[in-house]
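Reply to dn_fold:

You asked what the input looked like. This is it:
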Amino acid sequence: MRRAQSILGPEQIEAYHREGFIIPPYRLPEEDIAKLQALTLKLIEDNPTLADHHMVGPHVPGSGFEGLKSSPGWLDIAIQPDIVDIVEQIIGPDIILWGSGIFHKRALAGPATPWHRDASHTPVKPLATTSVWISVFDSLRANGCLRFLPGSHAAKQVGNHVWQDRDDLIFGVTVDDGEVDESKAVDVELRAGEMVLFDIFTIHGARNNLGEQPRAGYTLRFMPSTSHYDHDAAVLRDKPGYGHDIRPLILVRGIDRCGKNDFQRGHPNATPKVPA
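and this is what came back:
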């Protein structure tokens, strides 16, 4: 059996818990970057009406309620051993992948990502999730890279959010303006294949893409199996980019410590077998 690597050093783990996000010292191999880029371009081509929205669940073709057309190959990247090793250093050895998504913003007129906490709408009990956002193409200030508010996760508070129906936003959930001090925002620029990990309570967002290059990120949502993904408690069921009541769960490492997680719901076929 393959042994997990310690890709993160103690100082990086400490920074994650202190700041609420880190850029790990790791980049996908070139062949995986090329694969991810090809998958993303095909996903955009096959789903033109969703291209500037949060395209949910490409790793489980046929899942979700929006009719997303995706190809095999996404799950291979999501459970890439090095990525799971990094996640294990943050949340422990028993790991569930509860979601994935592509956030794509076209060049010159891509929508903004409003400031928000993922904790505002995630039916995980207790709330414990690490997101891995992989840059598909170079993600720079010029084309709307991710931005974070360091330490905004520390109080473990969901905060107040409102829903905004606006064409210039990639989705509508927005944290109350009183919780955001943009003077403290940190822009996270990434080369293709690099990634950022962040806590479920960390406030983050991104500006519009007004640059000449498209921007896309492949987001993976991991939780420790000591938590329960409560499908029945989901509040965002039919909003574009959500559908939390039918998210397919995949145990990618270890065992289901909670014992309540449903690994059948949301899967169009039998639960996929993940390589050990």
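Residues 228 and 259 are 8 Å apart (CA to CA).
Hope that clears it up.
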